[in-house]
Amino acid sequence: TTDTQNVAIVNATTDLPFGEDTIDAPSPTTQAPSQLVASSPAQNVTIVNATTDTQNVTSVDATTDATADTHNTTMAKPTNDTQTAPPNENTTLPLTSQNLTSSPANLTSSPTLPLDVTATEELVEEIPEDTITTFYVMADAPYSDEERYHLMPRHIDQLGDDGEFLVHLGDLQYAVVDRCREGAYYEAKEILKKSRMPTFVLPGDNDINDCDSMSHGEEMWTKYFGLFDQRWDHSFDVTRWGDLGESFSFIQKRVLYLGLNMIGGTPYSWTEKSNRHRKHLEQVRALFEEHEGKFEVIVLLKHADPGRNHRDFFGDGDRDGLFIDMIRRLGKPTIHFHGDNHNYYEEEGEYGVDNYMRISLDGESVAPPIRVSIDVSKPNPVTVSRRQSNLRVKCCSDGWPRLDDDDDDYYDYDDDYYNYYDDDE
């Protein structure tokens, strides 16, 4: 080009390194696409069909890639693949701190720091972290043949496909009627193994403690439900608790799950019960210390409706170093699911601990397994559904911990389940 103030690099296909490269002014003949077309005096650089990492860049239909740290650069599409220019004196142009000089030769490259002009910088889209876990919980079923052959199999078959796992909190028979016969354990196992998701099973008092022979109950439970989740191929990094093999823990998507062998009823051995609770407390304390900073929510899963026989584990909320005191000091939302009572109810802020919620589940298959969803990216991460329109949840239907306290709903006892109604209903 003539009477211009630019130097053009046309359809560059060579390497353009950072260095003192020389560009030769071509003879007045047709140049190859990789050659330089220049004029004098030149003050700016025009890179044609290229992409540059520049300041003040105008890009027009760029098709090839180049990288240069330049200023005041214009990229434009040429009208054809070749350009001609009259002979010209060598022109020295600033390229940041380096000089780009024209001479009657083709573009030459420095052997150092090569940069492929034809390579395209790939933009990798960051994949957001998956923060949501959905699972199901049930307890105290089956207690009758109606449940065993009809209700509970239907509940298992109708579980949503969104669940990552299911937990049965214990009492898989009614010991007074079933007498801990082996068939009762077998029949419950046959129902649960049809679950489409990994299923964890914890013992209840009717499974072991209420049997005529405690050792027989332990043997049957271990035979049919020990390590039950291993029937499925799952990726949960489950920790078993040594001689407390019925208990387990794992962290999934920044939620710490604690499954404990803690049952209701009168202990068959007060010494065994006290030792088991003490070991559980030691294990929980060690997990809190080991995984500090790795979880945002705690889920406690067990069978017993906590009472005076469990105070050696829970404490009374004082600064006694027991479970309630530990979660109070941690300050993490802690939701506790249990069976044993066979009626649904909620206890929020028990022991004066605002970050503690306890939920008792429906029993005897009067309701399907509850659905729990936890999204640790939210300030109210826990959502609970009883999955039937007439079975409602006060604390957690819109997330817990609740973001406000202006809920005027109240509970109304029913013989079969806890229900609640709005004041205007």
List the helices and strands and how they pair.
Layout: E1 6-9, E2 36-38, E3 44-47, E4 58-59, E5 74-75, E6 92-95, E7 98-101, E8 132-138, H1 145-157, E9 165-168, H2 175-178, H3 182-192, E10 199-201, H4 214-225, E11 239-241, E12 244-252, E13 255-259, H5 270-290, E14 297-301, H6 311-314, H7 323-330, E15 334-338, E16 345-348, E17 356-360, E18 370-375, E19 382-385, E20 410-412, E21 419-421
Parallel strand pairs: 1-3, 4-5, 8-9, 9-10, 13-14, 14-15, 15-17
Antiparallel strand pairs: 1-2, 6-7, 8-18, 11-12, 12-13, 16-17, 18-19, 20-21
Based on CA atoms alone, the radius of gyration comes out at 36 Å
Strand content: 15-25%
> What's the assembly state of these chains?
single chain
Q: First CA to last CA: what distance?
A: 85 Å
- Biggest sheet architecture: 7 strands, mixed
Question: What would the principal axes of the Cα set say about the shape?
Answer: globular
Helix content: 10-25%
Structural class: alpha/beta
What's the mean pLDDT score? 77
Low-confidence stretches: 1-110, 115-121, 408-425
Number of strands: 21
Order of strands side by side in the largest beta sheet?
11-12-13-14-15-17-16
Order of helices and strands: EEEEEEEEHEHHEHEEEHEHHEEEEEEE
